Amino acid sequence: MFCIAAFIVLCFCAIFSGRYRQMARKAWHCVLRRVTFRPCDINFSEEVKGKLMGRMILTHPGFARFTDRWIDTFAWLFVGASLWSLAMVAVAGLNLMIYDTCNPQHAENCALGGEACSVASYTPGFWESLVHGRPHQWFMDQGQQFGTTVRLIPARFQTWTPDEYVSQKNSWFEPFDPAKPRALEIIDPGCSACAHLFANVRAAGFEKRYNVTYIAYPIPDKTSWSGYKFMNSHLIASYLAAMKQLPPGHSHSRTPADWLLLDRIYTGVNHEGMKWQELMNLRLDPDQARAAIHRFAGEFGYSEAQIGQLDQLAGSPEVRAQLAADKRTVEEKIHTVKIPTILFGGRRYDRVLNVHQLR
Questions:
Q1: SS3 at position 347
Q2: DSSP state of 18
Q3: What is the rounded distance in angstroms from the CA atom of residue 78 to the CA atom of residue 72?
Q4: Is 34 exposed, middle or buried (0-12, 13-18, 19+ CB in 10 A)?
Q5: Is 96 helix (H, G, I), strand (E, B) or coil?
Q6: What confidence tens digit (pLDDT) does each residue in 307-346 have?
Q7: Pairs from 246-250 (Cβ < 8 Å, separation ≥ 24)
Q8: Measuring CA to CA, which residue among 216, 166, 171 is closest to residue 190?
Q9: DSSP character for 334?
Q10: Of the candidates 218, 217, 257, 265, which has an alpha carbon nearest to the alpha carbon of residue 240?
């Protein structure tokens, strides 16, 4: 094992200095013998140990004796840590290819994955699991996640068509045009990254070139008292579904009411200049959020009687069934681990696309 550890260190050193390359070649020869179940070259081991401790024994003889005694143990630990690091990098690269994030369980922590909101609920890391005496649970979770990632490799190379996930209940940003291709977004009303994508879609004129629709997916969170990552997301999604069924009686806009509500949540501000999305997420309880939606509905052209009907529809079994069906589509068919997710042009993107990419 000492030969393998020396090979790893010498290869790294040889990249920056030619003086180590001859030793690195010797180490490689030793490694080849080890992997073919032959003993390592004893002369090479002694040569490396001699160079390592030659000066040390003159200046720190006690530490040199300690190192000589435990050097094989240190070599085992070093090689184990190196293999572990290599495995973690490989798994992160695979996750990045499949999910567009290094860690599907903590998608927001991966700087390479782009701006997004993580779908997975919080899961403890290795050290936290170790402190709580449950390291085995961490390994089981990682193994299960890795198995899921491997099963989804074919999905990375498939052609993504929004038609497979769109039903007659979907609404369209612009009046539907059969001549235009379709685009599907998966969004959470409380997700700031979804709001960013919404603004970029408008800025790029994307909705003029595509028939754009969406699936509202309030991100579940078992650790939250509301059951969702963002406090009023499920309430807003319920009203979005209700507005699809009941259009306003006196609308002066060709944009559907549910899209107007999304626009108000994502881009609107109140009289104090505070963003409505932040208010919905942080300051308004469900009753206050519902009252705000009532005001918006009135501005969209709903009468008082229709607003009462919206309340009934938002809490109806039909809307609950629709949201449950959308949840199954997102989790079991699209398998997204972070949103926004947008499908168009045969491809899938699990992050915020900038204006240039949308053009």
A1: strand
A2: G
A3: 10
A4: middle
A5: helix
A6: 999 999 999 999 999 999 999 999 989 988 889 999 999 9
A7: 246/306, 246/309, 246/310, 246/313, 248/297, 248/300, 248/301, 248/302, 248/306, 249/301, 249/302, 249/303, 249/306, 250/301, 250/303
A8: 216
A9: I
A10: 257
Give the residue among 237, 201, 194 at the shortest CA–CA distance from 338.
194
Report the run of H or E that residue 162 belongs to, with start and end: none
Q: Is 321 left (phi over 0), alpha (psi -120 to 50) or beta?
A: alpha
**Contact in structure between 184 and 165 (CB atoms under 8 Å):** yes
User: Which spans in the chain are helix H?
Assistant: 2-16, 21-35, 42-53, 56-59, 61-99, 126-131, 135-151, 153-156, 192-204, 206-209, 233-245, 257-267, 276-282, 286-300, 304-314, 317-328, 355-358
Residues 265, 347: Cα–Cα separation, whole Å: 27
Confidence band, pLDDT 50/70/90 cuts, at residue 4 = low
**C-alpha to C-alpha distance for 103 and 92, rounded to whole angstroms:** 6
Find, among 293, 352, 356, 359, the residue nearest to 116 by Cα.
352
- Catalogue all structural domains in the chain, each as residue range(s) with its CATH number: 2-96 (no CATH), 104-155 (no CATH), 159-358 (3.40.30.10)
Specify the length of the chain in residues.
359
Model confidence, pTM: 0.75
Question: Both ends of the chain: CA-CA distance in Å?
Answer: 55
Among 152, 215, 218, 157, smallest CA distance to 183 is for 215
**How far apart are alpha carbons 71 and 257 in whole angstroms?**
71
Q: Count of alpha carbons within 13 Å of 315, Cβ hemisphere only?
A: 7
**Contact, 312 vs 153, CB < 8 A?**
no
- pLDDT tens column, 267-308: 999 989 999 999 999 999 999 999 999 999 999 999 999 999
